[in-house]
Every structure is written in structure tokens, then in C-alpha cells.
Amino acid sequence: MIDKFKLRRKVLLVSCWWGLVLVGVILAARIGYPPDEFIQRRQRLMAQVKEGVILLFGEPMLQPGRHFRQDNDFFYFTGLEDPGAVLAMVPQAKKSYLFLPRQTEREILFEGPNLLQRPRAKTKLGLAEIYPVSYLDEFLARTLPRQGLCLYVRLQPRDEVDQARWETRIFVGRRHRLHYNDQLTLDNYRVQKLRERYPACVFKDVTPYIDRLRLIKTPAEIAILRHNGRISAEAIKQAMLATRPGAFEYELEAAALFVIFRHGARGFAYPPIVASGPNSCVMHYDRNDRRMKEGDLVLMDFGGDLDHMCIDITRTWPVSGAFTPEQKEAYRIVLAVLKACLEFYRPGVTSRDVQAHVQSVLKKKGLDSRGLKGGIGHYVGLATHDVGPRGIPLEEGMVFAIEPALYYPEKGWGIRLEDTVLITAEGCEVLTAGVPKELEEVESLLKRRN
Questions:
Q1: Residues 53, 38: Cα–Cα separation, whole Å
Q2: pTM for the full model?
Q3: Which tens digits make up the pLDDT trace of 164-182?
Q4: Any idea what the Cα angle at residue 337 is, between residues 335 and 340, rounded to 5°?
Q5: CA 430 to each of CA 144, 334, 338, 421: distance values in angstroms, whole numbers, following the listed order
Q6: Most buried residue, 6, 20, 212, 327, by CB count within 10 Å?
């Protein structure tokens, strides 16, 4: 009888586990990328550029105080996290070459070996050769004359995990307000050095080619984004359940961070925004140190960074568990704009088309837009504010966030709602639908708090 009982118990447990998997419970394992993902990306880039040598630099050093995160463009074509790397692609030969620092024994002891220590790595990664980085200049000297003395490099700013290329340009400008901070960016310094060493070369910008490729997400990227969307949505749900009068904003941040780290994220896609009361009117508030009070609204903008793919979500909810009538009125307008945008997204649609639809929907509902127009938000991918040409019609495979908001500093509260969406052949898929935004669903979830 004991054996039969144990057997039945084991079968029941296994059945329950598979049942949970089938209904979509979030598992902790990272998804990652298939082996040939980066080979195919390099092939697509070389097929478009067709000439010269394409040169991309990786992040030069380990970053203090945090996990290493590779330069986005370099990662996109290699999937590698080794610091100090350089990638050279020769389109006419259809070959790629990786250059890495030759490590000392101490570096290997502390950081582990890079791919120079793994002779079979080049075959697995689809590389023609892996060289010491000290050979880079000789390689260019030998190769460029045979490739028309044409060098494709990044002539536009890099993007960061939470910063678009155009934002990098702005922040560099702000840094230069004080002349003591007015030094060349690393990208500009590299271009300057290359021009000095190879003055006969024609320099061309590879950035537009990269941005167009990154704009349309691959099946592997979409799978990661879906997984991250579920994880990040669950993170905000847990933050909602942790909300109570007297708690600090950073307690909600901690509840959310636990979820994304527990499920494999290497970090957040941008500094978490947990803005209560008057802080909810500061768009990128991230001090997260205020003590919440009865009557406050909490605006939380949060997303994980999973396998180098970001997610962006915002939800707003009442600390007390119930919106006031005035808050409900504003919330319904923001929600109506968001839902009108979501229902109209499909390939071929422009931002102007979406805005016209939003105004039509609000008019039919008898709602005052209070200045909200809707439209198409910022792209999402390797960066939270991802790269790609603006103002073009939607295409299948695009991923972006839309975030209508109303702010009332004089009342001490603001409301913002945001989802990350994927454009599909038929319309759009909301990747962050796992956290409620319907007013009644938000209040119902908050009733579950202890």
C-alpha cells in the first residue's frame, strides 16, 4: 500500500507540473539564441553592404559594479560577451573575423578564458578566424587595399540598454556644458584614429544598415521578448501586491526585481520608476525613496533585460486599493487612448492613421482627450529606446511601446499606462498583457493584498 501511495503521489506531482507548464507558468530558464542566429545576421548585413570592410568594436572593459553588458551592435552580430573584442566583416569574401585581447594568466584566473583559448570556437560561431587584437591593424593593412580602401564603421552614436542613439548625442552635449568634460566619445576617438592610420580610405556609415536590420525582430528575439513580457508583467503584479500605506517606493522596486532576477534577467531595462504621489508627475523619477500614503497613486514604469532584449511597461494604481472618482475619470481617458491605439495597429498603418482612429474612438465614447493623441511610440529591443527609422508605416516584426499619460502636478498625481507590442501579420500582439490595466481588474487585484 505504501509503494502504491508513493507511486500515485509521484504521478500526481508530475501531472501537476506539466499542467502548470501547459497553462503558461513562467519558468526560470533563459531562452537564449540558436547557434546560427548571429551567422545569419552577419550574412544579411554583408549582403546589403556588399563592399569594403565592416568594423565593429565591442565594449572595451568590464563595467564596475554591475554585470558586463556588451555593446548592442556588437552583440547583435556576435552574441559574445567577451570584453575588448573587435569584429571585421568582409562582404565580398563573405567572411567574418574576430579579434580578442590575449589574456594574462591572472586575467584568466579572475575573469575566465576568452575565445582565443578555445580553438574550436571559430567553427561553432561561423568565423573565418579568431586573432589576437594586436593583429587588427596588420589585418586591415593587408585587407583594405583588396577591398577598395572602403571602411564601414559606426559614424553615429552608440545606443545603451536604456538610451537611444539620439539620446546619447543629447547627453554628450549636456556633458560638454562644462569644458573640463568636453572630451571625444570613444566611438569618435576610434574613427579619428582609423582616419589617421588609413587616410586613403573612404569612410562610410554602417549604422543605417544595422538599424534597419535591428528594427524587424527575428523569431528568436520574439520568443525572448514574449518570455520577458510575461516575466516583467508578473514583476509589476507583485509590486502591486506589495503596495500599502506606509511602505517605501523601494519596497515595490525590490518586489519587482526579485521576480525578474528569479527568472533569469541580468538586470533591468532602465532604472525602475516607482513614483508615488507628486513623484508620479516626474516622468523619469527614479529615486524611489518616498513613503507612500493613503490617497496616493503609484506610477510604476519597469521592465527586465533578458538575453539582451528589453521590455517596457507602465501601470498606475491607488495605494488605498480604490481610485477616487476624479482619478477614475482621468484613468479611463488614458486607458481609452491606449486601447484605441492597440486595436488599430497593423502592418501599413502610420502614426497619423492611429491618431485619427484614436480621436474617432474618443468622440464616439464622448470622452475629452485632454490633449492626448495616441500614435506610435518608441521602438523596443536591444535597447529600451531601440534603433530604427522613425515615421515609416508599421511592418510585421516591429516591436515598440505606447504610453499615453496625463499629469496633474497641482493635484499631486499623474497617470501613465504603457504596453510593449509586436506587430503581426494580422494586427498586434501585446507582449505585456499579463499585468491588468482595466480599472476594475486593477482594483480587484489590489483586494488580494494581505
A1: 18
A2: 0.92
A3: 999 999 999 999 999 999 9
A4: 105
A5: 46, 17, 11, 4
A6: 327
